[in-house]
Amino acid sequence: MCGDSTPTRSAELVQPAEAAYVGAARHFTSELLGLWGLASEDRIAAELIVDELAANAARHGRAQMSIRLCMHDDGLVITVTDSGEARHHDGASPDSTPPDEHGRGLEIVRRLAGSTCIHDDERGRRVVTTRRLAPLQRSVAGVTSPAS
Question: Which of 22, 82, 109, 138 has its CA at 20 to 30 Å from residue 68's CA atom?
Fold first, then answer.
């Protein structure tokens, strides 16, 4: 689901919930939002949001993750879900992470997005963020100006 209204554009990437795939999620976001014509500030913020959430899904998630981007007239909804069978993670357990490291990624996400909702259930975790977008730029006779 992409928010309360019908998105003007949407796309989804489903991939393994592994650290090696976090870069692919970031690249997917960057390329797609560039094609959609989002302002640079919004693209960079969305890339950081996806990077943090995909990294969390890879570290704490299950078998697969999905990244869904939905653009509305005034906002971008980013949903990152980890799902599938629970799996054992290699490396350090969450409890061995220094206390000042816990939650830092989600705090970055909350600051970049206007709203963030986290939903946990037996199937996994779904994080939904919404970011208000800068007005789209229009090019008229080679001159770029803010949308009116």
Answer: 138
Q: Are 129 and 135 in contact (CB under 8 A)?
A: no
DSSP E strand boundaries for the chain: 9-16, 64-71, 75-83, 115-121, 124-132, 137-140, 143-146
Q: Angle, to 10 degrees, between the axis of helix 40-60 and the axis of helix 104-112?
A: 150
pLDDT (tens digit per residue) in 54-67: 999 998 888 999 99
The C-alpha torsion from 38 through 44 and 50 to 51, rounded to 10°, is 160
pLDDT for residue 103: 67
pLDDT on residue 77: 96
Residue 69 bridge partners (DSSP): 11, 78
The answer to whether 132 and 114 are in contact (CB under 8 A) is yes
In 3D, which of 14, 71, 20 has the Cα closest to residue 42? 71
pTM over 0.90: no
Tokens 């796309």 found at? 11
